[in-house]
Amino acid sequence: MEHTPTGAGREIQLAPNELIVSKTDPSGHITYANRVFMRIAGYPEHLLLGKPHNIIRHPDMPRGAYRLMWQTLQSGREFFAVVKNATIDGNYYWVLANVTPDYDLRGKLQGYYSVRRPPSRNAIAAIEPIYAEMRKIEAAHGKAEAPDASRDWLLAQLQEKGCSYQDFILNLNADVLRAKGVNG
Asked: Which residue numbers delimit the PAS domain (predicted)?
């Protein structure tokens, strides 16, 4: 996949009260997308349903961030992240994503439920250089080792600060979440 330089395309911003909602099956294929998702990403429903959720993955996003997400979800915990997504026409949009495993009454994983809202501008400014460094680390490693290498670097940076990735993301977005009455 060819990498689009940061800043290429135009940023699409969610309105302050907009939420993007989607559901996937256990393998990450989209089973539901709300109208806001379709409008912001530019995809009609028939081009989203049944497709892998990474159809909207922006090349500026390090693979290590997704490795951390999947490890967190597979351990049964919810995951928060600031994510840069791509639109169908080459633009991009930032979200504060909350992804949660969805279990049936017997405890069997049914898939994942994701709610995305606008992140704080400070969160975007803080995460962009971190993701840039993670992409450099990934470029210096083989394809198989790259996600783990960048994830490990990120976790080591946060350990030095004495916080988890989730705490880091929630703290960066505390003002946005407080304004919406959301507690992380």
From this structure: 25-76
List the CATH code of the domain at 20-180. 3.30.450.20
CB 184 within 8 A of CB 177: yes
Q: pLDDT digits over 149-163, tens only?
A: 999 999 999 999 999
Residue with tokens 């995460």: 127
Q: Where are the domains of the chain?
A: 20-180
Backbone angles phi, psi at 11, to 5 degrees: -80, 130
Record the pTM: 0.90
Query: CB of 63 within 8 A of CB of 138?
Result: yes
Q: What's the CA gap between 63 and 61, in Å, rounded?
A: 6
Q: For residue 68, which phi and psi values (nearest 5 degrees)?
A: -65, -40
How does residue 54 score in pLDDT terms, banded at 50, 70 and 90? very high
Structure tokens at 88: 């169908």
Task: Kindly report the three-state secondary structure assignment for every residue of 72-94.
Answer: HHHCCCCEEEEEEEECCCCCEEE
